[in-house]
Amino acid sequence: GQQLNQSPQSMFIQEGEDVSMNCTSSSIFNTWLWYKQDPGEGPVLLIALYKAGELTSNGRLTAQFGITRKDSFLNISASIPSDVGIYFCAVTGTASKLTFGTGTRLQVTL
Amino acid sequence: DTAVSQTPKYLVTQMGNDKSIKCEQNLGHDTMYWYKQDSKKFLKIMFSYNNKELIINETVPNRFSPKSPDKAHLNLHINSLELGDSAVYFCASSLWTGSYNEQFFGPGTRLTVL
To answer: Which residues partner with B77 through β-bridges?
Structure first.
């Protein structure tokens, strides 16, 4: 099945630092999504991208839909402790089926 | 107000037992999903129902049987539980418009099979 590879797999950063992560696919997709999963909770949608090259922000988060439509990037500026969690990219297929990436685990130290 | 709720939150059971997980959404959505998250945190869709009709059925053992009594509920029944069924199961819901609509996830049910 379709594999979305995320990197890095995990990150340990200090509060205040900026974070970058990416997601790549071998196939082209028309919608890219970024979700965050807090410990013990379900994923929550952060940003949705619908157009190649699109750059979208949500507060301190900025995501980009790659020009090739095979990748996407998520940046978090000035990280804070509540940014801790697992970040997933996802793409949509037929019947609104979501395929999730392998996840990037973020730890923030004070 | 809870949007997507699941019961139970935790489920510990013996191999070979049959168990059910319930999901309810009060968002007025018409499509509901079940996802499985394994120990490595990989999330994968299992089933999807639209207006009580099965529209996605991934390669899931037939020991897993979803049931949707109405648009607001999607339950998951698992027969003859195996060790490999241990995972966190997430229910989600969305509106069906033919293009992508945000899926809202429940808090998950952690199933442990001993």
So the answer is: B20, B65
